[in-house]
Design a protein that fits this description.
two-stranded antiparallel ribbon, mainly alpha, XK-rel, transmembrane helix, XK-related_adapter, transmembrane, membrane, single chain, 7% strand, three-stranded mixed β-sheet
């Protein structure tokens, strides 16, 4: 959710190139404090500490079954987080024994957070100084059907900090949907059937819920960044608040329905849940095999076909984990090098919510008619109605976001148009000064595509 560096709102017109070059040089981006890295690390440590404490309590109470599942969910997500950070930072090809040791004891996010903070403090102390190593970042714009490039110089240190930011975004996704979702679902199930609410279990569930909501919100933001990567896009507080409410209601209602359904049918619910997950898991592979496409190359440098296959399987598992609890905001395409479909895919979104709504209604009806009364001291009909209404409200917030708050609306009606209008005026005044043309009186906005 945070930005390690920000592109200035206004271009630096003094550095504008000629019209023939079609490149406008902007001011250097400003780096910002990486709040997202700190927040992700806090969630990881909080959930890990509360999970280990619950494991200790289960062990003292001789509840081996509950302890085993709690430990399994914690270990699987923690190991995947460590592997993700090692993969992103390419530690195996570097001489970093301390970092590898921290990953080995499952504290990789902590050492990475410290590295990011040290890098930020170094940049803060050297603010205003020119870096010896820089790279160029370009964004495409359209003026009268012709592409114009806006170009910025980005320092090597800012790039490194951005790499930390991107790594933690991936970690938040994995932690949320491969660890927090099963952990939250299981702890809710244990609370329901044991009719006992422990403070330590409540703390674990709160951390898990925040982690899932944060991961789901990041899904939307990353999807928007991927689809409109050529443009400068920002999400304001109102947009983020709408996404957060939408995702919180969607996830909590979905998981509560799954818990009540599982508590009603117990082992009979397992085949249904496994089948549901397997359909989501194999859907991208079925589309890939039916298309007859080849496996994408160059997903990562120096990757063999086996390494590429491992990456594709890992991405597919994460994709299935996201779609099992909420909408992923992206459609996986295994034949593409980017692994995602950058189209809007309204049909995919509509199909997802339609199927999930039918599934939720069926599971709620099963709970209402077959649920054991000893599970809850409340009216089953009232609980079932509440859960369906909450899920429908989440869909309303989703529609509200796409109708009024999606950045696509402001992208072509405000941000880009105003920006290009400023660029066109500057270029026209340059030509007028060079060729001594008469004053410019026409409305430039009418000529902008």
């Amino acid at each position: 959710m945070d930005r390690v560096y920000e592109i200035p709102d206004e271009p630096n017109m003094e550095q504008a190139s000629s019209v023939e070059e079609d490149v406008i040089r902007g001011a250097s981006p400003r780096f910002t404090f990486p709040f997202g890295i700190l927040f992700s690390t806090f969630l990881y440590c909080g959930e890990a500490a509360s999970a280990l404490y619950m494991i200790r309590i289960y062990q003292k109470n001789n509840e081996t079954f509950w302890m085993t599942y709690t430990f399994s969910f914690f270990m699987f997500s923690s190991i995947m987080v460590q592997l993700t950070l090692i993969f992103v930072h390419r530690d195996l090809a570097k001489d970093k024994p301390l970092s590898l040791f921290m990953h080995l004891i499952l504290l990789g996010p902590v050492i990475r957070c410290l590295e990011a903070m040290i890098k930020y403090l170094t940049l803060w102390k050297k603010e205003g100084q020119e870096e010896p190593y820089v790279s160029l970042t370009r964004k495409k714009m359209l003026i009268d059907g012709e592409e114009v490039l806006i170009e910025w110089e980005v320092g090597h240190s800012i790039r490194t900090l951005a790499m930390h930011r991107n790594a933690y975004k991936r970690v938040s996704q994995i932690q949320a949907f491969l660890g927090s979702v099963p952990q939250l679902t299981y702890q809710l199930y244990v609370t329901l059937i044991s009719a006992e609410v422990l403070l330590s279990r409540v703390v674990l569930m709160v951390f898990s819920l925040i982690s899932v909501t944060y991961g789901a919100t990041l899904c939307n933001m990353l999807a928007i960044q991927i689809k409109y990567d050529d443009y400068k896009i920002r999400l304001g507080p109102l947009e983020v608040l709408c996404i957060t409410i939408w995702r919180t209601l969607e996830i909590t209602s979905r998981l509560m329905i799954l818990v009540l359904f599982s508590a009603t049918l117990k082992l009979k619910a397992v085949p249904f849940l496994i089948l549901n997950f397997l359909i989501i898991l194999f859907e991208p592979w079925v589309k890939f095999w039916r298309s007859g496409a080849q496996m994408p190359d160059n997903i990562e440098k120096n990757f063999s076909r086996v390494g590429t296959l491992v990456v594709l399987i890992s991405v597919t598992i994460l994709y299935a984990g996201i779609n099992f609890s909420c909408w992923s905001a992206l459609q996986l395409r295994l034949s593409d090098r980017d692994l995602v479909d950058k189209g809007q895919n309204w049909g995919h979104m509509g199909l997802h919510y339609s199927v999930r709504l039918v599934e939720n209604v069926i599971m709620v009806l099963v709970f209402k008619f077959f649920g054991v009364k000893i599970l809850l001291n409340y009216c089953h009909s009232f609980i079932a109605l509440q859960l369906i209404i909450v899920y429908l409200i989440s869909i309303v917030f989703m529609l509200l976001f796409f109708q009024y708050l999606h950045p696509l609306r402001s992208l072509f009606t405000h941000n880009v148009v105003d920006y290009l209008h400023c660029v066109c005026c500057h270029q026209h005044h340059q030509r007028r000064a060079e060729n001594s043309e008469p004053p410019f009186e026409a409305d430039t906005r009418q000529n902008i595509v």
